[in-house]
Write a structure and sequence with these properties.
Low-confidence stretches: 1-27
Structural class: alpha+beta
Strand content: 15-25%
Length: 261
């Protein structure tokens, strides 16, 4: 009997000794989270790849991984290396914000804009109608125009005594980077392209806000779509989704360039 008790006590002591390392491991201080790189909160890591600290479930490690263009959605940031991400990635050069995606058709807005004093055309009051542009006589018709790149090429190459500041700015002047995606291909969006931004207005502005860039305004923007009668072109307010026309020599509409990617 005495021998059995000694054996039982020895077993108990051995089991207690074996448990000590496990108990010590479970009681590791949560301050180790910071040492291991878990320095973010759940809110900080929203939309990113993340890991939770095993010692403190409120501490996170996260990283925003750039994705392929096939995963692009409105509000994402477009970089000069042809990738997109939800949040700003240090070391990459942003060139635009995703504004519209429909299958393989993807559109990004420029990071800056001209907010005033830019005309569609420098012509005064004489009749002007560009023969290379389609004419749209109603808002419903203008809304179907997605040919901004073609329109812009037509406008800047049109032979006239006038110049076309809005389209020329996007075609010639706006170059956020010298090489890679975003170094060329910018154009004055068509009315339909501007109108579609109404459905992603908040997402687009959130992306611009992350980059501390000029957000889309609750204002009218020139499109490259021409009205059916001379001296007028269509403009769009992407905040309200309104489409209207104005005289091309007026300078009270904004200009925000776009490009496909």
């Amino acid at each position: 009997m005495r021998k059995m008790m000694k054996t039982a006590i020895a077993a108990l002591l051995l089991s207690g000794t074996a448990m000590k390392p496990a108990l010590a491991q479970n009681c590791t201080s949560s301050t180790r989270c910071a040492e291991l790189g878990y320095k973010k909160s759940a809110a900080d890591c929203d939309g990113m790849e993340s890991l939770v600290c095993p010692f403190d479930k409120s501490k996170y490690y996260c990283v925003d991984v750039a994705g392929s263009l096939a995963n692009a959605t409105p509000g994402m940031i477009l970089y000069s290396d042809g990738t997109v991400s939800e949040n700003v990635i240090s070391g990459k050069t942003p060139v635009g914000v995703v504004a519209y995606v429909d299958g393989s058709t993807r559109l990004a807005v420029a990071l800056e804009e001209i907010s005033s004093n830019i005309q569609w055309s420098t012509q005064s009051y004489e009749y002007e109608n560009l023969s290379c542009l389609a004419d749209y006589s109603s808002t419903a018709e203008a809304q179907t125009d997605f040919r901004g790149a073609t329109n812009t090429s037509c406008i800047v190459n049109y032979r006239s005594n006038n110049s076309y500041p809005a389209a020329e700015y996007c075609n010639n002047s706006y170059k956020p980077v010298s090489s890679g995606t975003g170094s060329s291909g910018w154009y004055l969006p068509a009315a339909g392209e501007l109108y579609m931004m109404n459905f992603s207005y908040e997402a687009i502005n959130l992306g611009l806000q992350k980059l501390s860039k000029t957000q889309l305004q609750s204002a009218y923007y020139w499109s490259s779509s021409e009205y059916a009668y001379g001296n007028r072109a269509w403009r769009v307010n992407p905040y309200y989704g309104l489409i209207d026309y104005d005289y091309t020599y007026n300078g009270n509409s904004h200009v925000r360039c776009v490009r496909t990617f």
